[in-house]
Amino acid sequence: MKKKQEPSVRDRLIVALDVDTEAAAVEVVQVLSAQVRTFKVGSQLFTKCGPAIVQKIHDLGGRVFLDLKFHDIPTTVAKAGIEAARLGVFMFNVHLSGGETMIRRCLEMVGEVCEQEGLVRPYIIGVTLLTSICEETLRNDLGVTRTIPEQVAHFASMAAKDGLDGVVASAREIGAIRRTCGEDFLIVTPGIRPTGTPVDDQSRIATPHWALEQGADYLVIGRPILNAPDPAKAVEAILEEMEPR
Ligand code: C5P
Questions:
Q1: For position 118, which CATH number holds?
Q2: Domain that holds residue 229
Q3: Cα 230 to Cα 199: distance, rounded to the nearest angstrom
C-alpha cells in the first residue's frame, strides 16, 4: 500500500470526463483546470481517443484516473497496469473479482517496472461490486451466496491485505470499509450529488459533504458538473460544499 497523502479539498475532487469526443474532453479540462486537478478517463473516452487523451490532459496540467477496470489473467492485467504507469496516470483500477493472484502480480510487476524506469507508481485501486449489480444478479448470475454488503466487505479486506491502495465504494459502504481496512486505505466515491442537482440514474447518492464526513478520500463527479449551465460555477459550489465545517 502506498502511503496516503492528505489531499487538499481541491485535490479530492475527480471530474468524470464522460463525454464522447476529444474536443469535448479538452474543453472541459481547459474550462476547469484552474479549479480541478484530476480527471477520470473511462472506457468510452479511452476507446474513442486512445492513450493520446491522457497525454492531452497531462499537457493541460491535469492528472488522470484511468478508469478501465482491468480484469483478465494476472500477467495481462499486470502488463496493462505497466502501460498505465508508463502513461504517467495518477490512478488506475482493477476488478477485485480477478482474484488475489491477479492483484498481487499487478502490484509486483508495476512496482518493479516503476522502480527500474524511475516512474512514480500510480495508485492502484480495486473495484468491489459494480453498483448495477443487485442481490438477484449476484446470486443467480454470479453464483455468489454472500449478500452485497458481505461481498463488498470481503473484497475490500482482500484488497487491503494484498496491498492495493484502496477501493471504489459508494458513500454508504465507507464506514464498514474504513473499520476493516484502516485509515491509510484510499476510498474513491462516485454517486455524489451536490445539494439541489438532479439524481440522474444514480440510486444511492450522497452529498459531497456527507461523503467526506463518512471518510471518502476522493469524490468522482460527472453529470452535476458536465451538464451544469456553468461548469466552473458548479465546481465552485461543490468545492465549497466539500470544505470542512
Ligand atoms: O455523472 P455521475 O456523477 O453519476 O458520474 C459518476 C461516474 O462514476 C461515472 O463515470 C460512473 O461510471 C462512475 N461510477 C459510478 N458508480 C460506480 C463506479 C463508477 O457511478 N460504482
A1: 3.20.20.70
A2: 9-242
A3: 18
pTM of the model: 0.95
pLDDT over 70 for what percent of the chain? 99
Would residue 78 count as lying in a domain?
yes
Question: Mutation test of ligand 1: which of 17, 18, 207 has the most ligand atoms closer than 8 Å to its C-beta?
Answer: 18
User: For residue range 55-70, what is the model confidence (pLDDT) as tens digits?
Assistant: 999 999 999 999 999 9
Neighbours of 5 (CB within 10 A): 10
End-to-end CA, the chain: 30
Within a domain: 4: no
Tell how far the Cα of 138 is from the centroid of ligand 1, in angstroms.
Answer: 20
Cell of 117: 524506469
Residue linked to cell 491522457: 54
Compute, in angstroms, the gap from residue 202 CA to the centroid of ligand 1. Answer: 8
CA atoms within 13 A on the CB side of 64: 27
Based on the structure, what is the number of domains in the chain? 1
Query: Per the structure block, which three cell numbers stand in for 110?
Result: 508495476
Helices (H), 118-163: 135-136, 148-162
Q: Is residue 1 part of a domain?
A: no
Ligand 1 is surrounded, with C-beta below 6 A, by 16, 18, 42, 130-131, 168, 190-191, 200, 202, 220-224
Residue 165 counted as domain residue = yes
Confidence grade of residue 199 (pLDDT, cut at 50, 70, 90)? confident
Q: What is d(CA 48, CA 56) in angstroms, rounded to the nearest whole number?
A: 14
Ligand 1 pocket check: which of 220, 225, 226, 238 to mutate, most ligand atoms within 8 Å of Cβ? 220
Question: What is the average per-residue pLDDT within 111-121?
Answer: 98
